[in-house]
Design brief:
Elements (H helix, E strand, L loop, with lengths): L1 E2 L5 E2 L1 H11 L4 H8 L3 H8 L7 H10 L25 E2 L6 E5 L10 E7 L13 E8 L1 E6 L2 E6 L3 E5 L4 E4 L5 E7 L17
Antiparallel strand pairs: 1-2, 3-4, 4-5, 5-11, 6-9, 6-11, 7-8, 7-10
Helix pairs in contact: 2-3
Length: 198
């Protein structure tokens, strides 16, 4: 979680609302530009729910900032990455944590993230440009594409075009997922988070 100059914590939703007002953008404009519902944006801004990494990346892109503007995230991994060096981070949601696995290579098209979810976690349904592949490393989970549910067990994977509305989660199992996709989650050329004034 980001902190302001006084050292106080800034919730992601509050930071999003602050940036939106800086840009004189309405909630409707933000929702339409990110393909998220106004209701969901409203819940985020009131700190009633936390967006997934994918949704936060979409919001950041529309607002012309890096997701580091809204929350602290680790730097990209090295080309050779040891298991002992895994560094998980959260977006204020205790049910899900992320670990960056890809290096910030010039012109890179792939983003690789390890995701750890607690039982009962279900992501919001999103869609965006690109493609994604999810490999379930541990646990039992599911992926929903449009309205079709695919149940995954350890070792199962699914590959799809990201413009298909999709969500994932688990009913009664803690899961470890490997996500590989082309959505620009951590754009290196975005406005740096040091510009954050909230």
């Amino acid at each position: 979680m980001k902190k302001n100059k006084s050292g106080s914590a800034i919730a992601i939703g509050s930071a999003i609302r602050h940036r939106r007002k800086q840009l004189n953008m309405t909630m409707k404009e933000l929702a339409e530009s990110t393909d998220l519902s106004i209701g969901f944006i409203s819940q985020i801004e009131r700190n009633l729910t936390t967006p997934s990494l994918s949704s936060l990346a979409s919001i950041a892109s529309v607002m012309k900032v890096d997701i580091g503007y809204f929350t602290d995230v680790p730097k990209g991994a090295e080309s050779f990455f040891k298991k002992k060096n895994r560094e998980f981070f959260s977006l204020d949601n205790p049910l899900i944590k992320y670990c960056r696995l890809n290096k910030d290579l010039p012109g890179s098209q792939l983003r690789t993230v390890m995701i750890e979810t607690e039982k009962g976690y279900v992501s919001e349904k999103v869609f965006h440009e690109g493609e994604e592949q999810i490999y379930l490393l541990e646990g039992k989970g599911f992926v929903v594409l449009n309205d079709e549910r695919f149940d995954l067990e350890q070792g199962d994977c699914i590959h799809y075009i990201s413009s298909t509305p999709h969500q994932y989660g688990s009913d009664d199992s803690k899961c470890l997922w490997l996500f590989v996709g082309t959505q620009n989650l951590f754009p290196a050329d975005a406005i740096k988070s040091s510009n954050h004034k909230a």
